[in-house]
Amino acid sequence: MHMHKMLKTLTWQNRWTRRWQQAHLPCGLLSCPSPKSPWSRLLTPRTGTLLQGVFYCQPKCQETALKAQVAQLYQLTPPAPPSNRIPLGLLMVARGWLTHEQVVTALAAQQSAQTGKIGDWFEKLGFASEQQVPSALGLQWGCPVVSSLDTTVNAPFGWLPLAIMDAFQMIPLHFVPATNTLYIAFGERVDHAALFTIDKVLNCRTRPCVRERKTVAYELEQMRQQPRTQEVEFGPMHDCAEIGRVSASYVSRLGADDTRLGRIGKYVWLRLKTGTSHTDLLFRLASEDPIRPNVLRTPRTPMLPVSSDVSLSAFQR
Ligand SMILES: [Zn+2]
């Protein structure tokens, strides 16, 4: 009984501490209708949540900001896939691992078969060993090569959505809590734009490494067999207002207290956190959009007065 009373006092205190803290946080929405002084805010209870690390005092404010941010991400033209820095064959010739004739033969084989990566052809024709191709890829992308089979990522944020790992042929490999760094292994090409979005959505640092293509593909295949209850995929999406509506409805239904989002390839990706669990929402954007020019369109949804200008110019840079 005594214990119960004490707990009750504690939760009461916690609630007021939280309310006091939130009362001092300004709302991220410039056009926020809530009272501006901390004292009046203290008297009107706020159910604040975070969006991209910014505090919003009530669901309505967060929803407005969320829809504007989704609209911005929707307009973005994803960067072209990164080009290989130095052609793999050339690099391997320079290393003395292949002869010029072998590269020509492999290229001809690839061309007539119309399939397969050039690295696979080097192996298939017996010109290069299984270790040499990933080593060359590591040199090509200037990052370490990983051969260990241990992929037990114990990151506090769990796995990446499978569709995203699949699109970029990548797998989280290792997480270092001390530096909040997630190492991600790529099987084909290192995509820094994808890493940038993962940084933002998971709120961590990412570092790329290279791993044998077949191993990455095999592990992704294994993952495909497992149930993935924390991911919801929609698409193809033709309307950014629809994405905004669906996102806002999930945020409210799940009672998410922290939402982060970003554009990754053809996806708008949202991670909704509720306490210690999370849900990933993936909106696959329709790729054949004839009216979409190769630049940012004028946003159709009203934007936040000042902050939107700032972030738009940041995207255009
Ligand atoms: Zn507000």
Topology:
Layout: H1 2-24, H2 38-43, E1 49-51, E2 54-56, H3 59-75, H4 88-94, H5 100-113, H6 118-124, H7 132-141, E3 145-146, H8 162-168, E4 170-176, E5 181-186, H9 192-202, E6 205-211, H10 213-224, E7 231-237, H11 240-254, E8 258-264, E9 267-274, E10 277-285, H12 307-316
Parallel strand pairs: 1-8, 3-6, 5-6, 7-10
Antiparallel strand pairs: 1-2, 4-5, 8-9, 9-10
Report on this model:
By secondary structure, this protein is α/β, with parallel strands linked by helices. It folds into three domains: 67-75 and 229-316, no CATH class; 88-141; 145-224, GMP Synthetase, Chain A, domain 3, CATH 3.30.300. The chain is 44% helix and 19% strand. It is built from twelve helices and ten strands. It has helices at 2-24, 38-43, 59-75, 88-94, 100-113, 118-124, 132-141, 162-168, 192-202, 213-224, 240-254, 307-316; strands spanning 49-51, 54-56, 145-146, 170-176, 181-186, 205-211, 231-237, 258-264, 267-274, 277-285. A six-stranded mixed β-sheet has the order 2-1-8-9-10-7, with helices on both faces. A four-stranded mixed β-sheet has the order 3-6-5-4. Strand 4 (170-176) and strand 5 form a beta hairpin. The protein is elongated, with a radius of gyration of 24 Å. It starts with a helix and ends with a helix. It binds zinc ion.
The average pLDDT value, as a whole number, equals 81
Number of domains: 3
β-strand amount: 15-25%
Structural class designation: alpha/beta
Portion of residues in helices? 40-55%
Q: Looking at the structure, what is the overall shape?
A: elongated
DSSP, total strands: 10
Number of helices: 12
Terminal Cα separation, in Å? 62 Å
Outline the biggest β-sheet.
6 strands, mixed
Query: What integer value in Å does the Rg equal?
Result: 24 Å
Low-confidence stretches: 289-317
Please give the order of strands in the largest beta sheet: 2-1-8-9-10-7
Spell out which ligands are present: zinc ion
The ordered H/E elements are: HHEEHHHHHEHEEHEHEHEEEH
